[in-house]
């Protein structure tokens, strides 16, 4: 960093932060040379929190026949039925990149896959748009689509679970 911090440097850093926000960037790195052994290196990073829509699970209790029904007994069975982290499922298809996930080729078109559909290895199951490029995501194996974990048009992170094929 510069030996002499000046108001001009502070203004420069503020301008970089504004540039970061204005252009929807997440990181900006600049090195400014002032002369012999005098420079200013600035790295501005904006923390971005991506909220993924998690599938919601609704548990309906069976109608109680009387006081003999024990709701506590149903709770452990329901918890073991659904895996806690879909990314750890052996049939999980994860996102190979950061981008926006689309379930159909274009708005209004039929989705590539639906729950219960049979897919073949290499078949396109969805599209991830990254940097204005549409990337077809193929099924890594043949099987049946058990769950779709994303909604059409939602942002996804690298490694995020997208769907489950068994």
UniProtKB/TrEMBL annotation:
Residues 90-166 form the Lipoyl-binding domain. GO terms for cellular component: acetyl-CoA carboxylase complex. Residues 68-92 are annotated as: Disordered. One of its GO terms (biological process) is fatty acid biosynthetic process. Keywords: Biotin, Fatty acid biosynthesis, Fatty acid metabolism, Lipid biosynthesis, Lipid metabolism. GO terms for molecular function: acetyl-CoA carboxylase activity. Pfam families: Biotin_lipoyl (PF00364). Pathway: Lipid metabolism; fatty acid biosynthesis. NCBIfam families: BCCP (TIGR00531). This is Biotin carboxyl carrier protein of acetyl-CoA carboxylase. It comes from Paragemmobacter kunshanensis. The lineage of its organism: Bacteria, Pseudomonadati, Pseudomonadota, Alphaproteobacteria, Rhodobacterales.
């Amino acid at each position: 960093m510069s030996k002499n911090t000046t108001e001009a440097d502070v203004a420069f850093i503020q301008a970089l932060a504004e540039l970061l926000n204005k252009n929807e960037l997440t990181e900006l790195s600049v090195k400014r040379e002032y002369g012999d052994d005098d420079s200013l290196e600035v790295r501005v990073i904006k923390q971005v929190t991506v909220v993924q829509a998690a599938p919601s699970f609704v548990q309906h209790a069976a109608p109680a026949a009387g006081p003999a029904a024990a709701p506590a007994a149903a709770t452990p069975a329901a918890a073991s039925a659904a895996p806690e982290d879909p990314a750890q499922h052996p049939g999980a298809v994860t996102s190979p990149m950061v981008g926006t996930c689309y379930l159909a080729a274009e708005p209004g078109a039929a989705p590539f896959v639906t729950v219960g559909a049979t897919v073949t290895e290499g078949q396109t199951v969805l599209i991830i748009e990254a940097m204005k490029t549409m990337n077809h995501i193929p099924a890594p194996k043949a099987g049946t689509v058990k769950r779709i974990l994303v909604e059409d048009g939602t942002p996804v992170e690298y490694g995020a679970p997208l769907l489950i094929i068994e």
